[in-house]
């Protein structure tokens, strides 16, 4: 069930995504909240900012939660992860192993690296997925705001299409990689 509280935290995730875009990196933000609706951690994509392929928003939020994640696993506390974009396979793995019980995101990413739904549909880690409530694209207005951030990202100098144009490697056979 989607609530006004969910919308509040999704707006926070969007704010993190906007900051990521301002830092010239992929616009994704994530907020980790406990069962008392307290923000445990925030994260935003930092792949280009940190030169770290694993610095995705959801992973950063889980990392930033630190010891709280382990304490929650021991005491069976519940967490919700709010993300502005569907988690990729790496982030989905982080969600599963951090025992997050609820995931809410603004925009499906079936054309990009969105992996949560694909992994769930593949029936791997079924028991882990079965204990997680998933809410995808619950708010049209906020979804459209994330979609606009994605369109702005396409114009970024760090977008892969622009980086590939800048780099051209000549192969020994005379072919080119772009």
From TrEMBL:
Protein transport listed as a keyword: no
- Please verify whether the record's keywords include Zinc: yes
Q: Which UniProt keywords apply?
A: Metal-binding, Zinc
Domain called CMP/dCMP-type deaminase: residue spans: 4-116
Gene3D superfamilies annotated for this entry?
Cytidine Deaminase, domain 2 (3.40.140.10)
Biological process (GO) annotations held by this record are:
tRNA wobble adenosine to inosine editing
| Transmembrane regions | none
Q: Which GO terms describe its molecular function?
A: tRNA-specific adenosine-34 deaminase activity; zinc ion binding
- CDD domains the record matches: nucleoside_deaminase
* PANTHER family to which the protein is assigned, alphabetical: CYTOSINE DEAMINASE FAMILY MEMBER, TRNA-SPECIFIC ADENOSINE DEAMINASE
What protein am I looking at? tRNA-specific adenosine deaminase
């Amino acid at each position: 069930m989607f609530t006004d509280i969910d919308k509040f935290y999704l707006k926070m995730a969007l704010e993190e995504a906007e900051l990521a875009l301002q830092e010239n990196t992929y616009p994704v933000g994530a907020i980790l909240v406990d069962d008392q609706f307290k923000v445990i951690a925030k994260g935003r994509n930092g792949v280009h900012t940190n030169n770290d392929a694993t610095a995705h928003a959801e992973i950063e939020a889980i990392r930033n939660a630190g010891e709280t994640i382990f304490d929650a696993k021991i005491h069976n506390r519940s967490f919700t992860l709010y993300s502005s974009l569907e988690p990729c396979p790496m982030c989905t793995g982080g969600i599963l192993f951090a025992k997050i019980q609820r995931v809410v995101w603004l925009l499906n990413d079936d054309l990009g690296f969105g992996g949560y739904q694909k992994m769930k549909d593949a029936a791997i880690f079924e028991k882990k997925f079965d204990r997680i409530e998933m809410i995808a694209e619950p708010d049209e207005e906020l979804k459209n705001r994330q979609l606009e951030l994605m369109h702005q990202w396409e114009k970024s100098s760090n977008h892969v299409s622009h980086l590939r144009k800048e780099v051209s490697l000549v192969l020994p056979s005379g072919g080119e990689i772009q």
